[in-house]
Predict the structure.
Amino acid sequence: METERQYLLKKAGIVAMAKLYPDGFEELTPKDRVLAYYLYEAAAGRDIIYDQNYLQRLAIRSVLAAVVTHSRQTKQAIMKHQSKYPSKI
């Protein structure tokens, strides 16, 4: 018996967060998975995705990009933790 899928994750006023299930994604070849990823980003726009998920996310991403770009001038202790953070934004 298949478990019932949960689509509505959270709701705050008129804003709702929904979970989408990519049926058939497992059957795609690695090349087609990469294509699907880039088509998704192109359709939604990377900055729009970041901006819609959190008010300050674009600014945070810019700061992290600067840290990585200037990594020679960044203390190693910061770089150690910085590499974990982008996956959380």
